[in-house]
Each structure stands twice: as structure tokens, then as C-alpha cells.
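User: What would this chain look like folded?
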Amino acid sequence: MAPVAAAVTRVLITGFGPFQNVPVNPSFAIVSRLPTTLPNNIEIYTHPSAIPVSYHPTIELLPELYGSTQPDIALHIGVAEGRKYFAVEAGSSRNNFDLIRDNDGRNFSDAEGVAAWGDSPTRLDTDLDLDGTIESWQERTKDFKWPAMLSREMQSMGDVAEQKVDVKVSRGLSVAMGNVEEEEISVMAPDPDDEVRWSDNVGFYLCGFIYYAGMVQKSRMTAAEGSANARVGKRDTVFMHVPLLISDEEIGVGVDVTTELVQSLVENWRALKE
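Assistant: Here's the prediction, encoded as C-alpha cells.
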């Protein structure tokens, strides 16, 4: 008897537009090149334009975007200029979105956060299985030919947030962008040579903002608003930081890395449903 095919899993993916000294954001360059389907009954829904690097347009867009695509999984992508690797972020916090102004010259106050998210916890983590996802993702990409900027020989020892140390740095732009941590932390360090890895440093700018807002939005979707096999009430949303990819070769690798991440996310999401 032939095995029963898996039900279609719907994955929403977004990327950001230009900001500050990033005139071409590689996150949307990747998203705009993704296929609409992947093997094993996976459908990809990409937002047709870059998400503006602005708080209010972003949060106004999310309800319609999630509602119209009815994703089982949402993947938001952004760039971390100082990194030389791809990283899936564990979670995000709702405070400190007033640290720096967005492309519209505005910030997002804690009072606005209360109005948007009510009594949602200060910190939210994805409900997806990151351990299983990262393990699978690393296996799927282990034979990739990495561009010079991402090769092991060119990598630094990883950013300070992901060393097995306690570290304290002052607030500033790199904190908000997710390049360094602001608070004291002590976490297990991933292998600093891994081109794809786990992280817990999404930052306090639009990357952290869309991640937190996306997790809230996904958890609020009802059975009527989601697909037939969605996990109602779960934060099945995740965020990936990509390096500052520039060349066509680098963007192409980014597309391949992303499709393998999607496969890994879906594989582990389906296991959670069993």
C-alpha cells in the first residue's frame, strides 16, 4: 500500500526593503527569487514587495498578510550586517522599539505596544522546534559551496552574543540591529564555524519588531482564519538573519539556504503535529 502523501503545508515568507546604508536589502533579494512550491507538498507564499523598514506600516500590514495567506508557518527574514553566517533567532522582546527611528523618522513606543499586543509577555519565543530544525538545516547545507565571504576561513569567532561568556555592552545601533547583546547573558555557544546556526540576538529594530508582532499575530489566528492543518494558538513563526549578501552568487546561496531551512522547518513542524 502506497504511503499517504503529507497534507500541503503553507509557508509565508517576507523580506525587508532598503534602510540606512543598505540600499539593496538581501533579505528581499532572496525572497523575490524563491520558488512557489517545494518537494513534499510545501507551498511558499511570498509578499510581492519588500516590507518597509518602518514600524507602523509593518504592524498594519501583518493582520491582512497572515489572514490572506493563512500560513501554517511564517518565516520573516532580515539582514545583520556584521555577521558572516545565517542564523535562526529563538525569540524577541516587545520593549525598546523606541531605541532608534525607522525610515519614516518614527519609533514605536511602549504605550503603542500595549495597544497592539495587550498583556502579551515581554518576551516571546517561537513554538517551532528550533533544535530539530537547526540540526536538520545544518545537515542539508553541509555540502554547500559557500562564497568567500561565508567560508570558514573568512569567518570571525562569532558575535559576542553567541559566545559562552557573560558580556555587557552599551545600547546603540548595533544592539538594536541585532549585532550585539545589550544585557548580560550566558548561553551555549554554537560552533563559530557553522555557516547556519541558532541565535538569540534578533535585536530591537525592525527585525525584532516583525518577529514579535508576527508571533502575536500567528498565535491569535483562529481555526477559521488558518489553514485546515494549522496549529491553532501556536507561535509557529520564526525569524532568520542573513549576512550582507551582495553578489548574485551570494544571493543565490541565500536562496538555497532559505529553501533548505523551509524544508527543515516543515519537517519538524509536521512532527510536532503527530
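The domain at 9-153+198-273 is CATH 3.40.630.20 (Aminopeptidase). If you want, I can go into more detail on any region.
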